[in-house]
Description:
Blueprint: H1 2-16, E1 27-34, E2 40-49, E3 52-57, E4 60-64, E5 66-70, E6 73-77, E7 84-90, E8 94-101, E9 106-114, E10 132-138, E11 147-156, E12 159-166, E13 169-170, E14 174-179, E15 182-188, E16 193-201, E17 204-211, E18 215-223, E19 237-238, E20 248-250, E21 256-258, E22 268-274, H2 279-294, E23 300-307, H3 313-327, E24 333-337, H4 343-349, E25 353-354, E26 361-365, E27 371-376, H5 385-402
Amino acid sequence: MRYCVVLLVALFLFNCEQPSSEKLKQGMWRATLEAQDGEVLPFNFEVTNDSLLTIFNAEEKIKVDEITYSDDSIWIKPPVFDGYIKAKMDGDSVMSGFYVKDELKRSVPFKAVFGKDVRFETKDDATVNIEGIWETTFSPNKSEDTYKAKGIFKQEGNKVTGTFRTTTGDYRFLEGAVEGNKVKLSAFDGAHAFLFTAEVTDSVMSGMFYSGNHYKEPFIAKRNTEFELADADSLTFLKPGYDALAFTFPDESGNMVSLSDEQFKDKVVVVQLMGTWCPNCLDESKYFVEYLKAHKNEDIAFVGLAFEYAKTEAAAFKNIERLKSKLGITYPILLAQYGSTNKQSAQEKLPMLSHVLSYPTAIYIDKNGKVRKIHTGFNGPATGNLYKEYKSDFESFMSKLLNE
């Protein structure tokens, strides 16, 4: 009798289990996120197996190995950033759900179709060629919100790649198409979902920038091969009367860390104002890791100051640890602020600084503890030659400080 009862309970539990979701089909997929104004933001990814896929943005390839299956849902979490996709399968070739950022309470409708490898589908040939340099103004009719950017594009037939550079960084790897005189470019990296749409007439580009489904702003651009942005080394500076930086913030073990600590003594120090949510900071951190590996026996120290929008200290440190683990970061990243990424608050935490404009911002300190340069923003790999120039300038300046 007891055996029968146990058997019946086991059968009941087995029959009440929720069916597990179907696994992702191997091959190419075309995904879309809903933006405003009826626009969709497309990107492509390739599934290698049910626990590994790759997201493509122009030459950028993002490996995603955090894929889980629970009940009837699939969870896809791109590396480093806190955004994720939660979706359900409709058959074996269609997936639908949402791209979610819990901390910011944002949710964007998502859909993906198997077997499609074209990002933007075009029917007509391009009647314009946007390759080259474009002087760009975002929010041109809002004086307090207006900012400049430098559009840098390459075009082959209908296909376009490139980015927009601003004084605070770049929009990373954009990929798109030209159909007739209309341009569309997009990027998705797990942190941001960007879409640019525009019409080109007489060397003037007029369009709209969408970030997910929560933000949009107009922009206008004109061809200008001579256009340059303001010098990134002149935008943030020390206030009069200061020649050094000072701070004390906690690390993940609860230790309070200051620039006066022994680990920074008699060394060239690079202080990185950053956030785990910031793609330009990710690009900069990757380069810093690369640089440190090549100069590990020199008197150099790096330290990151993280400004996080995570609501709790524990969540912020969890994001920091995830970033360090994924990128192999060996230098300390301290929690300067959580619950907000407001730049005014950042400036209050570092009162000797004037005009904190961007994450990332790199502060270069010589062996005597004096601030020698402050670099706003970061020209990442998507900027091509500018990225190479940045690396060359960085290494030259660090060499100069080391040899003093």
